[in-house]
Design a protein that fits this description.
The protein has 7 helices and 9 strands, in the order H-E-H-E-H-E-H-E-E-E-E-H-E-E-H-H. A hairpin with a 2-residue loop joins strand 8 and strand 9.
Length: 157
């Protein structure tokens, strides 16, 4: 999925489990979470890519009418989707951090999984997990905080 999004030059920041794994967390995740730039041109490209992957809302019975286009993003800016490529969550903002433009200063360029992408840095990821307050997010905090402590220790040396 990352390669397809990057190939289309869609503007996004990886958040959630893949971002944590990019920083060394042992978390195993079954989906990709991204925060996208809500600018009209970017949403149009993102909707086109998702339509080509037959994106469909998770938790909705297959066969129900659903159209993936830019209008869908205007009415539903946050979606949990199943695609031909796998599970994908698309979000227009991240609790504790903000919208796409707010994420850019707290994102790191990552080279992994055959492509280059932006991922939330550890301090921002920790803020987002705290703000989400879901049990699974709170359970990840000790490992993320330990990784941040290691990074800070290395910087001090």
């Amino acid at each position: 999925m990352l390669q397809g999004l990057a190939a289309d030059e869609i503007r996004f920041v990886v958040v959630g489990g893949v971002a944590a794994a990019a920083h060394g967390a042992s978390l195993v995740t079954n989906d990709l979470d991204i925060c996208y730039d809500a600018a009209e041109d970017n949403v149009a490209f993102l909707a086109q890519r998702l339509a080509s992957w037959q994106a469909y809302p998770r938790g909705i019975d297959p066969g129900r009418p659903f159209f993936m286009d830019a209008r869908t993003f205007r009415t539903t800016p946050t979606m949990t989707l199943q695609t031909a490529e796998g599970a994908l969550d698309v979000l227009d903002r991240i609790d504790g951090v903000g919208a796409y433009a707010d994420l850019l200063p707290v994102a790191d360029r990552v080279e992994a999984l055959g492509t280059s992408f932006l991922a939330l840095n550890l301090p921002a990821l920790i803020r987002a997990k705290r703000a989400a307050r879901r049990p699974k997010d709170l359970a990840q905090l000790p490992e993320l905080e330990a990784l941040l402590a290691l990074v800070n220790e290395r910087r001090r040396r």
